[in-house]
Every structure is written in C-alpha cells, then in structure tokens.
Write a structure and sequence with these properties.
By secondary structure, the chain is α/β, with parallel strands linked by helices. The chain is built from eleven helices and eleven strands. The strands form two sheets. Strands 3, 4, 5, 6, 7, 8, 9, 10 and 11 form a nine-stranded mixed sheet that branches. It has a two-stranded antiparallel ribbon with strand order 1-2. The longest helix is centred in the first third of the chain and has 27 residues, at about 60-90. The relative contact order is 0.13.
C-alpha cells in the first residue's frame, strides 16, 4: 500500500463522523471538492471503495469502517507524539479534549480558567452533550476525559470523584409553595414538576427520591434543556429539579429560589474519567490531576456567593 497523508485520513474520519462530505469540508475549512479528492485518492491507495452514498448521507463500506478505526488511532498517536515532544522540551501544551454532560457546562469554567491561564499553549476542545452523546464520544476516543455524575456501566473507565454535586427543587419566588413554611415531597408531587429527559443525572436523582418515598413517577413535563426548565420555572409554569450549578445566575438575579423543604438540595458526586487501559495525553492527565486536587475547593468558591451548603445533607 502506498503512503496515505494525514489530510486524507482526517477527511475520511470526518466524513464518517458527519456522514456528509460538505460537513466534513466545513470542519476542515476546505471546499467540498477538496474533500472528495482526498477520499478518491485514499480509495486509489487502498484499492477499494471506502464510502457509499445512501440517500443524502454518506455511509462507510466494511473496508471504510476498518480504515476509519485505524485512521483515528494514527491521528491520535500523532497528536500524542507532539505532546510528548513538547514535554521533553519543558513545554506544557497540547490539545485538551474534554466531554461534559449538559449540566456540567456550568461547572467547567471555574476549573478550566485557572488551569489554562497557567498553560497558555494548551488548546481546548470541549464537547457538551447529553449523557448518551458523551459516553459515545468517550467510547470512540474522540475525547480523552469525560465529566458526568455517575460513571457509565457500559464502558470500562477509570473514574474518580472530585466534587459534590448539589441538586434541588426550585421555584419562582412568587410560586404558592414558596409561602409555605415547610414544603413536603407530597406537595411537589401535586405540583407541575419539570424534569430532564430519561438518562440525565438530575432525572435519575429525582426518580430515586420519588421511589424511596413511595411516590409514583408522574412528572408534569419532560424537557431536554436546563435553560428551558429555568425559564419556565421563573415564569411560574411549574417547579424544577435542577443542578445548583446550572441555576447560579438565576439565584443571583432572584429569578428562582430553592424550595423550603427538608433535605433540599440533595447531594451527589461529580466524576472525571477516561477509558480504562488506554493511555491519555499528558495535558489530559495534568488536567485530571488538577481537577481531583482542586475541584472541590474551586466549586465551593464558585457557589458560596449564593449557596452555602449545611454541614449535613442527604446524598443520592
């Protein structure tokens, strides 16, 4: 087999990822014909068809799937080689590839800012999505590290808890339940409770609370966006069960408040993880060590202005 170029391998990987030549071209900042030429050249080199058109999308052939797997490994090794060479020269740089569940996007700034300020040569690639999306990115090794509440059972990961994750029932300050001295879970059950989609960390936590108390899982509405839930709650359209991290600005602005009920908010854990048995880039390892060492302190500092956790809190 003749030598293939990194650009040809990148083109194939991105076409496979987006199932589209035009989207791959946008990601590479080149023209669509340029990507098509790279694919044709790679097919000439390998002597076999790597993609086929199915409707409006581009699908991989069996040979293409094999080539994509090896292409991703080659490109990843090349990137790691650059990090290793930089480390030999005493330079802390490289690409930090992180994936985080949607709720964690509010958690990341206080962690990333001090880390990257001390390492200005680090390039950040952050991908935010729902739990399934982040697990899939980690499985395909498109990210080195993932941040979420509960480590996935479907993947072997090395996961470490690094900070507590407060989640609670919130409402508009004008909601009738805010006038009660003590709100019970039964009051919440009778209200219009807005929750995230199945599989999300906050959804799993609130389901566990309801089950433990013997209440049916009858929720008012299922919403796939924290922002939409916050807007609806602030408008008085119901209650929400959300991460305290996600409500930081709304708490400060007085748009939403924690319901006055015992054990609210509840507390879970944040985990940072990478695939077990797989080496990770030095910059990723450095960030993981930084988060494990400094994460809890930085999170508490970020939340202390509007939320002071009591000494004891219920865990989920």
């Amino acid at each position: 087999m003749y030598h293939a170029s990194f650009r040809q391998l990148q083109s194939l990987v991105l076409v496979a990822r987006h199932e589209s030549v035009s989207k791959a071209a946008n990601a590479l900042h080149v023209t669509q014909p340029a990507v098509s030429l790279q694919l044709r050249t790679l097919e000439d080199i390998t002597g076999t068809a790597l993609t086929r058109k199915v409707g409006r999308s581009i699908q991989l052939t069996a040979a293409g799937a094999v080539m994509v797997e090896f292409s991703e490994r080659i490109l990843r090794l090349w990137e790691q080689a650059g990090d290793e060479l930089a480390a030999l020269n005493g330079v802390t740089c490289g690409t930090l590839r992180i994936g985080a569940v949607t709720t964690a996007e509010h958690l990341l700034p206080p962690l990333l800012v001090p880390f990257t300020l001390e390492r200005p040569d680090v390039i950040l690639k952050l991908q935010v999505g729902n739990r399934v999306e982040i697990v899939n990115l980690l499985a395909r090794q498109e990210i080195d590290l993932a941040i979420m509440g509960t480590p996935p059972r479907e993947l072997r990961t090395n996961a470490v808890r690094f900070a507590r994750h407060p989640m609670g029932f919130v409402a508009s300050p004008l909601h009738p339940l805010m006038k009660k001295r003590k709100v019970a879970l039964a009051d919440v059950v009778a209200a219009n409770l807005l929750v995230r989609e199945r599989g999300s960390g906050t959804r799993s936590a609130v389901e566990k609370l309801f089950k433990e108390a013997g209440h049916p899982l009858n929720f008012g509405s299922e919403v796939s966006s924290n922002e939409a839930i916050k807007r609806m709650v602030a408008a008085g359209l119901g209650l929400g069960f959300l991460s305290v991290h996600a409500c930081a600005l709304e708490f400060e602005a007085g748009l939403v408040r924690l319901l006055p009920m015992a054990g609210n908010p509840v507390e879970a854990d944040w985990h940072i993880m990478h695939l077990a048995g797989q080496p990770i880039a030095k910059v990723a390892a450095a960030f993981q060590d930084f988060v494990i060492d400094q994460g809890q302190v930085l999170v508490e500092r970020e939340l202390e202005a509007f939320y002071r956790p009591p000494a004891r809190r219920r865990r989920v």
